[in-house]
Amino acid sequence: MNSARGYEQQGNNGGATHCSLLDSRNIPEHVAIIMDGNGRWAEKRNLARIEGHREGLNAAKEVVQTALEVGIHYLTLYVFSVDNWKRPYYEIKALMEMFEDFLSKNEEELVEKGIKLVTIGRRTDLPKGLQKQLLSTCKKTESNFKLVLTLALSYGSRLDILDAVKEIVKKALLGQVKISDINEELFKSHLSTSFCPDPDLLIRTSGEMRLSNFLLWESSYTEFYFTNTYWPDFRRQEFLEALGTFAKRQRRFGQVAVKN
Ligand code: IPE
Ligand code: IPE
Ligand code: MG
Protein backbone atom coordinates (compact mmCIF):
# COMPACT_ATOMS: atom_id res chain seq x y z
CA MET A 1 0.00 0.00 0.00
CA ASN A 2 1.40 3.30 -1.01
CA SER A 3 1.56 5.58 1.99
CA ALA A 4 1.73 8.67 -0.21
CA ARG A 5 0.29 11.80 1.24
CA GLY A 6 -1.75 13.75 -1.26
CA TYR A 7 -0.04 17.06 -1.27
CA GLU A 8 -1.47 20.23 -2.73
CA GLN A 9 1.25 22.09 -4.52
CA GLN A 10 0.74 25.82 -4.41
CA GLY A 11 2.12 28.30 -6.88
CA ASN A 12 3.64 31.64 -5.90
CA ASN A 13 0.18 33.12 -6.26
CA GLY A 14 -0.85 31.03 -3.26
CA GLY A 15 -3.45 29.06 -5.22
CA ALA A 16 -3.36 25.31 -5.74
CA THR A 17 -1.86 24.76 -9.18
CA HIS A 18 -1.58 21.00 -9.37
CA CYS A 19 -1.43 18.08 -7.06
CA SER A 20 1.89 16.37 -6.53
CA LEU A 21 2.18 13.15 -4.61
CA LEU A 22 5.20 13.20 -2.37
CA ASP A 23 5.67 9.75 -0.97
CA SER A 24 6.27 10.14 2.74
CA ARG A 25 8.78 7.26 2.60
CA ASN A 26 10.96 9.36 0.33
CA ILE A 27 10.84 12.61 2.25
CA PRO A 28 14.38 13.42 3.31
CA GLU A 29 14.94 13.48 7.04
CA HIS A 30 17.46 16.29 6.74
CA VAL A 31 17.68 18.96 4.03
CA ALA A 32 20.56 21.45 3.94
CA ILE A 33 20.46 24.55 1.76
CA ILE A 34 23.11 26.94 0.47
CA MET A 35 20.91 29.96 -0.08
CA ASP A 36 22.93 31.73 -2.76
CA GLY A 37 22.27 34.47 -5.32
CA ASN A 38 20.68 37.25 -3.27
CA GLY A 39 23.12 39.84 -4.57
CA ARG A 40 22.69 38.89 -8.22
CA TRP A 41 18.89 38.81 -7.81
CA ALA A 42 19.03 42.44 -6.64
CA GLU A 43 21.59 43.58 -9.21
CA LYS A 44 19.43 42.18 -12.00
CA ARG A 45 16.69 44.51 -10.80
CA ASN A 46 18.98 47.51 -10.29
CA LEU A 47 18.44 47.23 -6.56
CA ALA A 48 20.96 47.36 -3.75
CA ARG A 49 22.32 43.92 -2.81
CA ILE A 50 20.72 44.21 0.59
CA GLU A 51 17.28 44.17 -1.06
CA GLY A 52 18.17 40.72 -2.34
CA HIS A 53 18.98 39.64 1.19
CA ARG A 54 15.65 41.03 2.39
CA GLU A 55 13.72 39.07 -0.23
CA GLY A 56 15.92 36.07 0.55
CA LEU A 57 14.56 36.01 4.08
CA ASN A 58 11.02 35.82 2.70
CA ALA A 59 12.06 32.86 0.56
CA ALA A 60 13.61 31.22 3.63
CA LYS A 61 10.35 31.65 5.51
CA GLU A 62 8.37 30.00 2.72
CA VAL A 63 10.81 27.09 2.53
CA VAL A 64 10.69 26.56 6.30
CA GLN A 65 6.89 26.50 6.18
CA THR A 66 6.97 23.96 3.34
CA ALA A 67 9.52 21.79 5.16
CA LEU A 68 7.20 21.73 8.14
CA GLU A 69 4.20 20.77 6.03
CA VAL A 70 5.86 17.90 4.19
CA GLY A 71 7.37 16.46 7.36
CA ILE A 72 11.08 17.19 7.03
CA HIS A 73 12.57 16.91 10.52
CA TYR A 74 15.85 18.79 10.08
CA LEU A 75 16.43 21.83 7.91
CA THR A 76 19.87 23.45 7.91
CA LEU A 77 20.27 26.83 6.25
CA TYR A 78 23.63 28.32 5.33
CA VAL A 79 22.96 31.90 6.34
CA PHE A 80 26.42 33.43 6.73
CA SER A 81 29.81 31.82 6.30
CA VAL A 82 33.06 32.59 8.13
CA ASP A 83 34.35 33.84 4.79
CA ASN A 84 31.41 36.25 4.39
CA TRP A 85 33.10 38.50 7.01
CA LYS A 86 35.39 39.55 4.13
CA ARG A 87 32.45 41.42 2.54
CA PRO A 88 32.04 45.23 2.74
CA TYR A 89 31.25 46.46 6.25
CA TYR A 90 27.94 48.08 5.26
CA GLU A 91 26.63 44.84 3.71
CA ILE A 92 27.58 42.83 6.81
CA LYS A 93 26.03 45.43 9.15
CA ALA A 94 22.78 45.53 7.19
CA LEU A 95 22.65 41.72 7.07
CA MET A 96 23.18 41.30 10.81
CA GLU A 97 20.51 43.89 11.60
CA MET A 98 18.14 42.18 9.21
CA PHE A 99 18.71 38.75 10.81
CA GLU A 100 18.05 40.17 14.27
CA ASP A 101 14.93 41.97 13.19
CA PHE A 102 13.62 38.94 11.28
CA LEU A 103 14.12 36.62 14.23
CA SER A 104 12.47 39.01 16.65
CA LYS A 105 9.44 39.39 14.34
CA ASN A 106 9.11 35.64 13.77
CA GLU A 107 9.95 34.32 17.23
CA GLU A 108 6.36 33.74 18.32
CA GLU A 109 5.53 31.96 15.07
CA LEU A 110 8.47 29.60 15.55
CA VAL A 111 7.26 28.80 19.08
CA GLU A 112 3.67 28.20 17.92
CA LYS A 113 4.60 26.06 14.93
CA GLY A 114 6.75 23.66 16.92
CA ILE A 115 10.02 24.69 15.31
CA LYS A 116 13.18 24.36 17.36
CA LEU A 117 15.84 26.90 16.43
CA VAL A 118 19.51 26.02 16.82
CA THR A 119 22.69 27.49 15.38
CA ILE A 120 26.05 26.17 14.27
CA GLY A 121 29.10 28.36 13.74
CA ARG A 122 30.92 30.94 15.82
CA ARG A 123 28.08 32.66 17.60
CA THR A 124 30.48 34.88 19.55
CA ASP A 125 31.61 36.49 16.27
CA LEU A 126 28.11 37.92 15.82
CA PRO A 127 27.01 41.38 17.02
CA LYS A 128 25.79 41.39 20.62
CA GLY A 129 22.20 42.26 19.67
CA LEU A 130 21.93 39.27 17.35
CA GLN A 131 23.54 36.99 19.93
CA LYS A 132 20.95 38.10 22.49
CA GLN A 133 18.09 37.51 20.06
CA LEU A 134 19.41 34.04 19.19
CA LEU A 135 19.75 33.17 22.85
CA SER A 136 16.14 34.18 23.43
CA THR A 137 14.67 32.40 20.38
CA CYS A 138 16.69 29.22 20.93
CA LYS A 139 15.61 29.13 24.58
CA LYS A 140 11.93 29.74 23.81
CA THR A 141 11.86 27.02 21.16
CA GLU A 142 14.12 24.45 22.84
CA SER A 143 11.36 21.99 23.70
CA ASN A 144 9.87 22.04 20.19
CA PHE A 145 10.39 18.96 18.07
CA LYS A 146 8.39 19.14 14.82
CA LEU A 147 11.24 20.66 12.85
CA VAL A 148 14.79 21.42 13.93
CA LEU A 149 15.80 24.55 12.06
CA THR A 150 19.56 25.02 12.15
CA LEU A 151 21.03 28.34 11.09
CA ALA A 152 24.68 28.20 10.06
CA LEU A 153 25.95 31.61 11.15
CA SER A 154 29.63 32.52 10.92
CA TYR A 155 29.99 28.85 10.02
CA GLY A 156 32.86 27.17 8.23
CA SER A 157 33.09 23.42 7.93
CA ARG A 158 36.90 23.32 7.98
CA LEU A 159 36.89 25.27 11.24
CA ASP A 160 34.29 22.91 12.67
CA ILE A 161 36.44 19.92 11.69
CA LEU A 162 39.53 21.55 13.23
CA ASP A 163 37.63 22.28 16.45
CA ALA A 164 36.62 18.60 16.63
CA VAL A 165 40.23 17.52 16.03
CA LYS A 166 41.49 19.82 18.81
CA GLU A 167 38.87 18.51 21.24
CA ILE A 168 39.72 14.89 20.48
CA VAL A 169 43.48 15.50 20.74
CA LYS A 170 42.92 17.23 24.09
CA LYS A 171 40.98 14.22 25.36
CA ALA A 172 43.64 11.85 24.03
CA LEU A 173 46.38 13.78 25.83
CA LEU A 174 44.37 13.57 29.04
CA GLY A 175 43.98 9.84 28.52
CA GLN A 176 40.19 10.12 28.14
CA VAL A 177 40.22 8.81 24.57
CA LYS A 178 42.40 6.02 23.17
CA ILE A 179 43.71 6.37 19.60
CA SER A 180 42.01 3.07 18.80
CA ASP A 181 38.65 4.59 19.92
CA ILE A 182 38.80 7.30 17.25
CA ASN A 183 36.35 6.28 14.57
CA GLU A 184 33.77 8.03 12.38
CA GLU A 185 31.13 7.91 15.07
CA LEU A 186 33.37 9.48 17.70
CA PHE A 187 34.52 12.11 15.24
CA LYS A 188 30.96 13.01 14.25
CA SER A 189 30.03 13.34 17.91
CA HIS A 190 32.57 16.18 18.22
CA LEU A 191 31.23 18.19 15.29
CA SER A 192 28.75 21.01 15.90
CA THR A 193 26.24 19.04 13.82
CA SER A 194 26.40 16.00 16.12
CA PHE A 195 22.75 16.48 17.14
CA CYS A 196 21.38 15.83 13.64
CA PRO A 197 21.72 13.09 11.04
CA ASP A 198 23.84 13.78 7.96
CA PRO A 199 21.90 15.68 5.28
CA ASP A 200 20.04 13.49 2.80
CA LEU A 201 19.60 16.32 0.34
CA LEU A 202 21.69 19.45 -0.18
CA ILE A 203 20.29 22.22 -2.36
CA ARG A 204 22.35 25.09 -3.77
CA THR A 205 20.70 27.90 -5.68
CA SER A 206 22.14 30.49 -8.11
CA GLY A 207 23.95 28.14 -10.48
CA GLU A 208 27.15 27.74 -8.46
CA MET A 209 28.21 24.13 -8.06
CA ARG A 210 30.40 24.10 -5.00
CA LEU A 211 30.10 23.55 -1.28
CA SER A 212 31.79 26.80 -0.18
CA ASN A 213 32.94 25.28 3.11
CA PHE A 214 29.53 23.85 4.13
CA LEU A 215 29.06 20.46 5.84
CA LEU A 216 32.14 18.87 4.26
CA TRP A 217 32.26 15.84 6.54
CA GLU A 218 28.51 15.44 6.76
CA SER A 219 27.77 15.49 3.02
CA SER A 220 29.79 12.39 2.07
CA TYR A 221 26.66 10.56 0.89
CA THR A 222 24.31 13.50 0.47
CA GLU A 223 22.31 13.92 -2.73
CA PHE A 224 22.89 17.28 -4.43
CA TYR A 225 20.36 19.46 -6.18
CA PHE A 226 21.72 22.46 -8.05
CA THR A 227 19.47 25.07 -9.64
CA ASN A 228 20.12 28.30 -11.51
CA THR A 229 17.31 30.03 -9.61
CA TYR A 230 18.53 32.86 -7.38
CA TRP A 231 17.63 32.26 -3.75
CA PRO A 232 14.93 34.99 -3.43
CA ASP A 233 13.01 33.23 -6.23
CA PHE A 234 13.37 29.75 -4.74
CA ARG A 235 9.89 29.23 -3.39
CA ARG A 236 7.53 26.46 -2.35
CA GLN A 237 7.01 25.08 -5.84
CA GLU A 238 10.68 24.65 -6.68
CA PHE A 239 11.38 23.24 -3.24
CA LEU A 240 8.71 20.61 -3.88
CA GLU A 241 10.31 19.92 -7.27
CA ALA A 242 13.67 19.39 -5.56
CA LEU A 243 12.03 16.98 -3.14
CA GLY A 244 10.41 15.18 -6.06
CA THR A 245 13.83 14.82 -7.75
CA PHE A 246 15.31 13.51 -4.51
CA ALA A 247 12.54 10.93 -4.23
CA LYS A 248 13.62 9.42 -7.56
CA ARG A 249 17.32 9.16 -6.69
CA GLN A 250 18.77 5.78 -5.91
CA ARG A 251 21.14 5.93 -2.97
CA ARG A 252 23.60 3.08 -2.72
CA PHE A 253 26.14 4.10 -0.05
CA GLY A 254 28.78 2.08 -1.84
CA GLN A 255 26.66 -1.04 -2.03
CA VAL A 256 25.22 -2.87 -5.00
CA ALA A 257 21.73 -1.74 -6.01
CA VAL A 258 18.92 -3.80 -4.51
CA LYS A 259 16.68 -5.25 -7.27
CA ASN A 260 12.93 -5.50 -6.62
C1 IPE B 1 23.87 34.57 -0.39
O1 IPE B 1 23.74 35.45 -1.45
C2 IPE B 1 23.73 35.26 0.95
C3 IPE B 1 24.97 35.34 1.72
C4 IPE B 1 26.10 34.79 1.38
C5 IPE B 1 24.93 36.11 2.94
P1 IPE B 1 24.98 36.29 -1.99
O2 IPE B 1 25.08 37.57 -1.24
O3 IPE B 1 26.22 35.46 -1.96
O4 IPE B 1 24.54 36.56 -3.47
P2 IPE B 1 25.47 36.55 -4.76
O5 IPE B 1 26.14 35.22 -4.82
O6 IPE B 1 26.47 37.66 -4.60
O7 IPE B 1 24.54 36.78 -5.90
C1 IPE C 1 27.96 30.56 0.46
O1 IPE C 1 27.76 31.53 -0.51
C2 IPE C 1 27.56 31.08 1.80
C3 IPE C 1 26.13 31.33 1.99
C4 IPE C 1 25.19 31.12 1.13
C5 IPE C 1 25.78 31.82 3.29
P1 IPE C 1 28.91 32.50 -1.02
O2 IPE C 1 28.30 33.41 -2.01
O3 IPE C 1 29.58 33.13 0.14
O4 IPE C 1 29.93 31.49 -1.69
P2 IPE C 1 30.99 31.70 -2.84
O5 IPE C 1 31.86 32.87 -2.45
O6 IPE C 1 30.25 31.96 -4.09
O7 IPE C 1 31.76 30.41 -2.91
MG1 MG D 1 27.04 34.16 -3.31
From TrEMBL:
Superkingdom of origin: Bacteria
UniProt KW Repeat keyword: no
InterPro entries, per the entry: UPP_synth-like, UPP_synth-like_CS, UPP_synth-like_sf
Cofactor stoichiometry and binding remark: Binds 2 magnesium ions per subunit.
Positions bound to Mg(2+): 36, 223
Binding site for substrate: 37-41, 49, 53, 81-83, 85, 87, 204, 210-212
Cofactor(s) required, per the database record: Mg(2+)
Keyword hit for Membrane: no
MF annotations from Gene Ontology: transferase activity
Enzyme Commission number(s): 2.5.1.-
Active site: 36, 84
Pfam families noted in UniProt: Prenyltransf
Keywords: Magnesium, Metal-binding, Transferase
Family designation: Belongs to the UPP synthase family.
Subunit note: Homodimer.
Function per UniProt: Catalyzes the condensation of isopentenyl diphosphate (IPP) with allylic pyrophosphates generating different type of terpenoids.
Protein name, per record: Isoprenyl transferase
Organism, scientific name: Candidatus Methylacidiphilum infernorum
Lineage, uppermost ranks: Bacteria, Pseudomonadati, Verrucomicrobiota, Methylacidiphilae, Methylacidiphilales
